[in-house]
Write a structure and sequence with these properties.
CATH architecture of one domain: Alpha Horseshoe
Radius of gyration: 25 Å
Strand content: under 5%
Number of helices: 14
Largest sheet: none
Structural class: mainly alpha
CATH superfamily of one domain: Tetratricopeptide repeat domain
Number of strands: 0
CATH topology of one domain: Serine Threonine Protein Phosphatase 5, Tetratricopeptide repeat
Distance between the termini: 81 Å
Length: 244
């Protein structure tokens, strides 16, 4: 009889915990992260509960607290690839690059075909102003030709190295995947601008305005490009916007 009663209370407690967990997940999904934290903290300590707390603290910008949760999780569950991945991303975000690089390289050993792992290594090298970042970004793009962030990074290197044809080819491929990508259109405009192909540069900068991404720099570049194509009224208009 005592056994049956114990089972009964256990089932009730488990059901209540699941309901509370669901409430926390709903608050998290709706962006009410502080409320989600309060709910998660009321639950028994489990890997899932600790991970949800880590992600919630990260969302409200308390990165120190989030790192503490991730570090504890990684210590207890070093073989959990998801924990390691989330921990490494936050380490990179907080410029703990040595530890982040160490973890990501261990992840590559486990899954060498995941493009995001070399991409993260590229971001780390980029933070250190190390040109090795190009190698990692290229590796990420080689693994996944649809990886737009990696494509953009490689195209940026091509433009800096004045390999304009390679950059244009890459950016054209990227825009076939996502023709509303601000970063790619901006790079395409710059690529034409640096080649002094101002007619094409104008078209790319106009596309940025169509995407509702105006900026002082865009209007300045567009104004200059219009001057080079003898369209002075348009140039004056965009310089006026840039000044104001």
């Amino acid at each position: 009889m005592k056994y049956l009663i114990s089972c009964f209370y256990f089932l009730i407690f488990s059901a209540q915990a699941q309901n509370t967990l669901a409430d926390g997940d709903i608050s998290y999904a709706l962006g009410n992260f502080s409320k989600a934290i309060t709910i998660y903290e009321s639950l028994p300590v489990t890997k899932e509960q600790q991970l949800k707390l880590a992600k919630s603290y990260e969302q409200i910008g308390n990165l120190k607290k989030a790192l503490t949760y991730y570090e504890n999780l990684f210590t207890v569950y070093p073989e959990d690839i998801f924990v390691a991945y989330e921990y490494s991303k936050l380490l990179r975000k907080t410029a703990n690059n040595t530890k982040a690089e160490e973890i990501i390289k261990s992840l590559i050993v486990l899954d060498s075909l995941n493009p995001n792992f070399p991409y993260l290594l590229g971001l780390i090298q980029e933070q250190k102003d190390d040109t090795l970042s190009k190698h990692y970004f290229k590796k990420a793009f080689d693994l996944d030709a649809n990886h737009i962030p990696a494509l953009g990074k490689v195209a940026t290197f091509y433009i800096k190295e004045r390999h304009f044809s390679e950059a244009d080819s890459l950016l054209t491929k990227g825009l076939k995947i996502d023709d509303s990508n601000f970063q790619l259109w901006n790079l395409k405009a710059l690529n034409h601008f640096y080649q002094k192909d101002f007619h094409k540069s104008v078209e790319s900068y106009k596309k940025l305005l169509e995407l509702h991404r105006p900026s002082e720099n865009v209007h300045q570049k567009l104004g200059y490009a219009y001057i080079q194509t003898n369209r002075y009224e348009e140039a004056i208009e965009h310089y006026r916007i840039a000044i104001n």
